[in-house]
Amino acid sequence: MEKEPLSQFIQRAYDAGHHWLAEASEHWRTHANRRTIIVLILGGALAGYLYVYVIQPPDNFPVATLVEVPAGAPLKAVSATLEEKSVVRSALALRILITLMGDERTIRAGDYVFKEPRDVFAVARALSIGAFGLEPVRIRVHEGATTKEMAVIFSRRLERFEPENFLAQARPQEGYLFPDTYFFLPNVTEDSVLQTLRQNFDQQVSVIQPQIASSTHSLDEIVKMASIVEREARISADRRMIAGVLWNRLARGMALQVDVTFLYTIGKGTFQLTTKDLLSDSPYNTYRYKGLPPTPIGSPSLDSLRAAVMPTKNDYLYYLADNTGVTHFSKTYAEHLRKKRLYLGT
Hints:
This protein has 346 residues and is mainly alpha-helical. The protein contains 14 helices and six strands. The strands form three sheets. A two-stranded antiparallel sheet has the order 1-2. The relative contact order is 0.08.
């Protein structure tokens, strides 16, 4: 047998080796693609799981609600509390993120408010930098509001406000809590609200203090009268006239006979009152008892306070408002009855 030339042998060996390498490469490439796909699928599944069950906000995230982080509380306890309150889905994830952002002792204690659902990264950052999100709440206390009405107004807007505690402190100050537009942080307490309203009253009254000092009435009498005038009329001129009429009646020893005091006690207006109501044994019944009521019947505006301390001098003893809101004044009871028939048909 003839020997194969060396060159042919080398060529055949090269071709065989090249073919083997090509097959091996193709085999590796095929399996590598499979591995890549598997890794991507697993990675995507893991990322989806982490987002759904760890990162994204809980479904019942407490939007616009106070979230307290107590001073001195350890990170573990804070994280557990925030998970319980549905601020985050995973207390562990929150702890890890805050630790990675810096020393875990850097979390800022206080009240937090989130306007919209935030993921665990945003919550961790807020706690780390103290982004409390607290913004003043605008609250309007209308003129003539009673302390009972105020308790309802504030309790609807302020989470830390305790209406019962407010009423216990506010009732003795009926009429001395000024009606106005206020801006309070959402975590303010009833004590701060009470103090602010009273300070505003003192500041407003200081404007008319010289007139009060030169009048023949005490501040308490003026506030009581102003609280009645506040309910009796809306126009400054009418308020000053009515104040003059009511001071006239008191000076003559007459009962005030105003219906608005019943609004304070039983919640009834003029056209709802019965004979039984008018005979009731209440110290606020100004038909039965002479003089001013025991307390103011609401919080008067500065305009009503001015009217009470600077009334329009007149000789009238009676007044009534017709169906269009115009007030008519009378000097005698007979004249008053005639105007009732004329303007009210009674």
